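Q: Could you fold this chain for me?
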Amino acid sequence: MSSIDPSAFGNAAPATTASDRLSRVLAVMVLLLSTGFFSAVIAISHTDPGYFDRLLMSAAQGRLDPIETGSTEKADDNGITPLPVPHRVRSTELTPQDFQIVMVFGGEAHLASPGELWRVRVDSLVPGLGKILAIEPGENGGTVRAERATLTGVRTD
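A: Sure. Below is the predicted structure, expressed as structure tokens.
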């Protein structure tokens, strides 16, 4: 049987200087603190699995762009499934008086209503106006004829 020489493994002697003792105390403190931290994280995650997700989302809430989504309907007989779109809930129904023409160009028009901007073409269905029948450019900003009203632009020179 051979004996093992402790000097083969580096400094095998006990810590004798103050700096060796201090570094060992710091290493033990780091070990104890990290063990305590990870034990607390595991305990919190076990009791409330969504805690850290909610904390992260609340911290990022100001930088996120909220999106309102509607429900997806089932496919019709043709197999066409409509896309999910934002569902807007208005406090009051729109009326023709709520709309004004922003611009008319190339068979399209931009209409403004309180809090919304509409891009419409002929045969578009717009709440408060009904079906768009005609879009005509003109010197005054254009005219948009719909089932319930005719909107005429106002020249602002």
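A (continued): DSSP finds two helices and seven strands in the chain.
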